[in-house]
Amino acid sequence: MVEVVRHDIVIVGGGGAGIRAAIAAVEADPKVTVALVSKVYPMRSHTVSAEGGAAAVVPGSDDSLDKHAYDTVKGSDFLADQDVVDYFVEQAPLELTRLEHWGCPWSRNDDGSVATRPFGGMQIPRTWYAADKVGFHMLHTLFQHCMRFDRIVRYDEYFVTKLLVDGGAVKGVAALDMREGKTRVVLGRAVILATGGAGKCFPFTTNGTIKTGDGMALAYRAGVGLKDMEFVQYHPTGLPGTGILITEASRGEGGYLINSEGERFLVTRDYGVGQKAELGPRDMISRAIMQEISAGRGIKGAYGEHVQLDLRHLGEAKIMKRLPFVRELSKTYAGVDPVHQPIPIRPVVHYMMGGVDTNVTGATDLPGLYAAGECASVSLNGANRLGSNSLTECLVFGARAAIEALKYARGTSEGNETALRRQGEEEMARIDALRGRKKGGERISQIRREMNLAMERGCGVYRDQASMQQTVAEVAQLKGRYADLALEDSSKVFNTEILTALELGNMLDVAETIAVAALARQESRGAHACRDYPTRNDQKFLHHLLVFFTPAGPRLEKKAVTITRFQPEERKY
Ligand SMILES: Cc1cc2nc3c(=O)[nH]c(=O)nc-3n(C[C@H](O)[C@H](O)[C@H](O)COP(=O)(O)OP(=O)(O)OC[C@H]3O[C@@H](n4cnc5c(N)ncnc54)[C@H](O)[C@@H]3O)c2cc1C
């Protein structure tokens, strides 16, 4: 029989958003107990690899909440919900200061004030940092702080495979305990998804192997809409071959981009970024690099063509103080020392603007289900996220979702344990049947590879209707083939084959929503650049797209954008 444990709130994900949510819940209520369920040990969540920084207005500086809000809305190409943006910018300084009180070692100016660096699309330096290992320090701070509370009960290396719904409301999850290979049921009166992004749908990404869109797929299958999925952020500066990120902080600290002729093309040519040059937003800079390469000004390398990021003029002392990790990564993974040589770079899939549709409180339309962090689309980022808003988003909306989930949980029942247990048992039977199943001839690696390539072809930096159409068809076909997957490993303890099979199933669902939404958005906005419709069309497309699961295939719906203070205008820097 399947084992059942019970808590008040279940949080899926131990990254920045999940741990912040857990702390917020136990601090708000002295009795509440929280299950923190994570498929990896929390410190291995992708948040740990964030490099450049977290955005917030520094109180008492020349900056203002209005400026941060305007930059975010403009960066989003006017697709962010402005009530969400207002809440975000107001809470951001409070969250980063709170993190400092918990021990986060923000870098300092000589006078002791908090140091900030410029980031793309921001009119003022407002990115707080701890050298170039920001995610590492933030996640450590959160993780260590959460250990103060024995009411946060961790379920490390538990892979959640299903949301359990009773009477139309989410009442817990079924999870595979990877150490023993057993499915267990973790019940709660509310569930918060904080499962991160889905970059691994693509072949070339900065994302860790674990970023497979699990939470998005769980919500989607439970009937919740995925929003803004067509907007996939390409970061301009990834190392060719590995996709390892060279942080935007390197441009914030003064790095240049140059083409094969040694020309600083963002200054000499018109790519719409104006005076901001290298500090333009990511969507525009990624397109500029692709155009340089198409115009024959790329540099040929072992992994295709690239351009270069030049830091040499910054000097060794500054590089070692502000960007030591960039130097280490460049030396180890590209064989160049940025003190003496430019770094080869090309655009790389980095971040999902889209995700589980929530309102400003983190609530989805399914009672009892909340989402926060990269897996959610609370509508802060719209069509293009500004670098360094995401880490702060995890804190602000992780905390908010927890408070709302707590309020909801107090007023709702625990659900019918027999019915929920039965669902857990069905899930256990499904997983057991999959383990080591010899039927069918399809390989995980083959389907994953084909999905990756289809996504790159149809949903790259530039898209066109014909290739998107083809990607939609290919992904649908791959989903059919997935049903015939053959698995070799029937062992129970740390059976990683079954995990990769489950992750692939999740990615196929998420990839399909990306391609379907991209095809439907017949305009160019933010990160969605469609060659057949090269301009933004506010008359027809100033709205979000939601994708819903149906047995017959994805169904699309429109959702209004909340516009309050900032009317859409041409996006030029
Ligand atoms: C290399 C890199 C550098 C970045 N740098 C910056 C930066 O400088 N500034 C910035 O603002 N943003 C940055 N970002 C983006 C930002 O780091 C992420 O968007 C953010 O950290 C996501 O946090 P999260 O809590 O939502 O998810 P994650 O940190 O990805 O955590 C997801 C959690 O969910 C768990 N999980 C997932 N699926 C399951 C499942 N099925 N069952 C159980 N648990 C599950 C995982 O175990 C994990 O604990 C960067 C991203 C990358 C990849």
Detailed description of the structure:
- The structure is a single chain.
- With 573 residues, this protein is of the alpha/beta class.
- The chain is 37% helix and 19% strand.
- The strands form six sheets. Strands 7-3-2-11-19 form a five-stranded parallel sheet, with helices on both faces. It has a five-stranded mixed sheet with strand order 20-18-12-23-24. Strands 13, 14, 15, 16 and 17 form a five-stranded antiparallel sheet that branches.
- Flavin-adenine dinucleotide (FAD) binds at residues 12-18, 37-40, 42, 45-47, 49-54, 134-135, 158-160, 194-197, 206-207, 210-211, 214-215, 245, 351, 373-375, 388-391, 394.
Molecular shape: globular
What is bound: which ligands?
flavin-adenine dinucleotide
**Distinct helical segment count:** 16
Largest sheet: 5 strands, parallel
CATH H-tier superfamily of one domain: Fumarate reductase/succinate dehydrogenase flavoprotein-like, C-terminal domain
Structural class assignment: alpha/beta
